[in-house]
Design brief:
Largest sheet: 7 strands, parallel
Distance between the termini: 43 Å
Oligomer: single chain
Number of helices: 11
Bound molecules: NADP nicotinamide-adenine-dinucleotide phosphate, ligand F7E
Structural class: alpha/beta
Strand order of the largest sheet: 3-2-1-4-5-6-11
Radius of gyration: 21 Å
Helix content: 25-40%
Length: 372
Amino acid sequence: MRKKSFITGITGQDGAYLSHLLLSKGYEVHGLMRRTSQFNTARLQELCGNLEFSDGGSLEDRLFLHYGDSTDSLNITTLIEEIQPDEIYNLAAQSHVKVSFEMPVYTSDVDALGTLRILEAVRQAKLTGKTHVYQASTSELFGKVQETPQTETTPFHPRSPYGVAKLFAYWMTVNYRESYGMFASNGILFNHESPFRGETFVTRKITLAAARIMNGLQDRLELGNLDARRDWGHARDFVEAMWRILQHDEPGDFIIATGEQHSVREFVTLAFEHCGVSIRWEGSGLNEVGIARVPVLKHDGIPNGFQPGKFDEFPTEERVVVAVNPDFFRPAEVETLLGNAAKAQEVLGWRAETTFPQLVSEMMSYDLKKIY
Ligand code: NAP
Ligand code: F7E
C-alpha cells in the first residue's frame, strides 16, 4: 500500500518540490488547488511532469488535484475525510509579507484559521491517531529578533499580519498536539528560494531583473530595504526537512535554516557577478544606487541572447542598474534573521546542502534561459 499524503498549497514553490520528493518516494499525492482563471500548475508540470516510476505506473495514477480553498471549512473537512491521508503538509498561505499589510483579514483567514481548519478536520474525521500533520511555520515569527541566532527557544515577536497569523497557526499546532495527542509538528523554516520562487519575492525579483537587464530588456531594478539580512536556503533542501519532520518518532518543532545570512545588496551583487558584471554601490539611504557596465537597453523587446562568458559580444554602457524605491518598504521591517538548525541536524540528520553562491547561480542560470 502506498502512503497517502495531502498537500495544501501544492501549486506553490514548496508544494511543487515536495510533490516531486514524495512521488519519488512512492507516495500517492493529493493536492489542494484553487480554481483560477488561468492554469496554475506550471511548477508542478515542470518539476513532476517527467517523473518515471520503477513499477511503470504513470503520474496520473499517483497525483490527484482537488479544487478547494483554505477558507472553506466544509471543503477541507470533506477532502480529509475522503482521502484519509497518512501525512498532511499544510503549505497553503497568503505568503507575501508586504501584501499581508494590505490584506490583513484575508491573510489571517487563510494563514491562521486555515491551519485550524486542517487540524480540526483531522480531529473530526477521527484521524488523530493516524495522520501526521506538518505546519509551515516561519522565521517571520521571530520578526524583531530577541536573540541571534534564533533557535527553537527564542521568544517570538512577529512584525506583520502574516507573522501574527502564522503565530496563531504555530500555537494551534502545538495545542492540538498537547490536547489530543495529535502528531502535529511545526517546521520553522527560514527563507528558502529556487528558480520556482514567486516573482515578487526579493530573490526572484533580482534574478529576473538581472537576466532582463543583461538581455537589454529592462533599464533598472527598483528595490526597498537593501540592508535587510536573510538566512537564504534552497527549497529543494528544505522540503526534505519537512518530510523528515513527519517521519520522526515523535512530533515537535524544528528550526530549518542554513546558519548563514546575507543582505539584499549582497544578493544583487552576486546575481550580477554570475553574469560577469561587477556593481559599484554609491550613495546611501534613499539615494543609494548600484552602477554597472551592462548591455545597452534595446527598444524592440527582443532579447539580445546574453549568456555568461559572452559579455564582449554586446555594445555596453555604464548606467544605474539598481535604485531604491520607498514603495517597497514595509510599515514594520524584519531587519535580520539567522537560524540555528542544530536540533534538526542532531535529531533528523538534516542539514542544508546548497550553498548561497550555488543558489544564486542556479536561479540566475534558470532566468537567463527563461527570458526566451
Ligand atoms: P507560495 O509559493 O506563495 O505558495 C503558496 C501556496 O498556497 C500556493 O499553492 C497558493 O495557491 C496556495 N494558497 C494561497 N492562498 C490559498 C487559499 N486561500 N486556499 C488554498 N491555497 C492557497 O509559498 P511557498 O514559498 O511555497 O511557501 C509554502 C508555505 O511555507 C507557506 O505557508 C509559507 O507561508 C511558508 N513559508 C515559506 C517560506 C519561504 O521562504 N518560501 C519560509 C517559511 C515558511 P496559488 O498557486 O493558487 O496562489
Ligand atoms: O523579502 C526586502 C524585504 O519578500 C526579503 C516569505 O516566503 O520568507 C519570505 O518573506 C527582504 C525583506 O521575503 C524588496 O523588505 C527589499 O526584508 O523576499 P521577501 P520575506 O519578507 O523575508 C519568510 C520566511 C516567509 O515565511 C514568507 O512567506 O527583502 N526587500 N526590496 C524586498 N522584498 C521584496 N519582496 N521586494 C523588494 O523590492
